[in-house]
From TrEMBL:
PANTHER family (alphabetical): RNA-BINDING MOTIF PROTEIN, X-LINKED 2 (PTHR45880:SF1)
Lineage of origin: Eukaryota, Fungi, Dikarya, Ascomycota, Pezizomycotina
Cross-referenced Pfam families: RRM_1
Gene Ontology biological process terms in this record: mRNA splicing, via spliceosome
One example GO MF annotation: RNA binding
Annotated PROSITE patterns: RRM
Record's protein name: RRM domain-containing protein
Organism: Elasticomyces elasticus
């Protein structure tokens, strides 16, 4: 099947979210790995304690991102299995809002029942 005729999943876009990265891998290591699938515009690695081991990889072309996502999800990289997903900011925002609502409900229950 030619590249132009490939179907894209609805969530596909140029930005990928990668997790399961070794803490000691460098941005250069990531460029080497992800550039095999096409031109990479940007890589941003997580550096905070709650984002270490993650990165965002942005491609110039959505088909390159699809190729990387298809081939690298589950790939063993530096003795770690990668999870590669399409970045979905609206889904992340909804998850954060849901978490905030659940936390608020839990705090209300604690107050109502005198629990610290």
């Amino acid at each position: 099947m030619s590249r132009a005729n490939q179907k894209l999943p609805a969530e596909a876009n140029r930005a990928l979210f990668v997790k399961g990265l070794p803490y000691n891998c460098s941005t250069e290591d990531l460029f080497t790995l992800f550039a095999k699938f096409g031109a990479v515009r940007q890589i941003r690695q997580g550096i905070a304690s709650n984002t270490k081991g993650t990165a965002f990889v942005v491609y110039e072309d959505v088909m390159d991102a699809k190729g990387a996502c298809d081939k690298l999800n589950g790939y063993n990289f530096q003795n770690r299995y990668l999870v590669v997903l399409y970045h979905q900011p609206e889904k992340m925002a909804k998850a954060q809002a849901d978490l905030a609502e659940r936390t608020e409900n839990l705090e209300k229950l604690k107050r109502d029942h005198g629990i610290d």
